[in-house]
Amino acid sequence: MLALVCAASEALSQVNPKVSQLFEELTAMGKPPFGYEPSVIKRGGLERYGNRPQLEYSLHLFYRPDIIRGRKDSLFVDSILREQKKYFDKQVKAIRRTINTLLGEAKDSCHYESHASGKDTVFYSLNLSHDTLRVHKYQEGDYTYYNSDEFLDFRLESGKKEGTYEGYLNYNVSLPLVEWSATAESYTWNRLKDDIKCLLDEHGISHRNALWQHDMIYSDSIWNETSSDWIGMGTYGETAYEKAGVTEAAIFSLPEEQEPLAKQMLAAIDSLVQSFTDKQQDCYYQYHYNTTFGGFTPQILTCYNSRIPETNSIRAQAEDHGFHFLILETRGSEWIPLEYLSLKSFVNGKKTYFDGIGSAP
């Protein structure tokens, strides 16, 4: 798990060592009883326009006893709440300790704190960038934020219900610009996709192809209803309000007894994706470092272009007593069916299942 903060040697050298140490500490705490693990995301692409890749370290933390209260087993509830509060307090203590050491080296900072009427608010915003020409400062109510080549925000507030807390920690640092050249060899999406397929094929992991499609009429018919057919509806860039879409999926599956091989393949795919992000790209990308089966997000990589309604993504999921890799290519909006493992096609609500996998209701 500590590899989470060791994204890559070049990227790591850009990260403030105190922040790196903080996220190592937060990650070493393990996953809370109810909550999230630290996340590291790399965003970049379209370097020809001078875009610099960025690393975002983040953590959503909360203490929500109201989530599990009401269960009949009061001893279980009390035990979980004690564990959750202990975990939450350790997270907050580590974060505030680190921020206090960073205040001395911040170029600009804002600290707001209130503990009135039984409500707590703690807010920090730090500009840690040495480039004073690339700093944007803006105000939101009592809070001042900084947008620069390196900044950190932390906000912790009492929830609406008594005794609850919720907070968010975000650290963002810009990486050196990937030098763009019209003649330089690039590592394209198609090459990455083919390399992953070859890798899995070499280890005897075959795939099945699926098609998931929805037009505007079908989308409008279910848009305001609660649907149990979809687990994800994703849109990116200027296509954020696109409702129609068609997704071609390649699904690779391994049974649960092949967990060591599944983890080996996940590590190899992760390495290929890191190589992809280190090269110049003609699309935007979002890469989640060290994705794990059953972790915070199944998405390893998402690629999109702000002017073209096309999204490509790679996912890793553990489900139905197995491990699965998905390569998705979408025109329009990306909708992923709840029964993605068994649906050969899902076109405007009409389902066709793979032979021997699932059946129509």
Plain-language structure description:
By secondary structure, the protein is of the alpha+beta class. 24% of the residues lie in helices and 36% in strands. The protein has helices at 9-12, 17-28, 74-102, 189-202, 216-222, 259-277; strands at residues 39-45, 54-63, 108-114, 121-127, 136-140, 143-147, 150-158, 165-174, 207-214, 230-234, 245-255, 284-288, 299-305, 308-318, 322-332, 334-337, 343-347, 350-353. The strands form 3 sheets. Strands 3-4-7-8-2-1-12-13-14-15-11-9-17-18 form a 14-stranded mixed beta sheet. The chain has a two-stranded antiparallel sheet with strand order 5-6. Strands 10-16 form a two-stranded antiparallel ribbon. Helix 2 (17-28) runs antiparallel to helix 3 and helix 4 (189-202) packs antiparallel against helix 6. The longest helix has 29 residues, at 74-102.
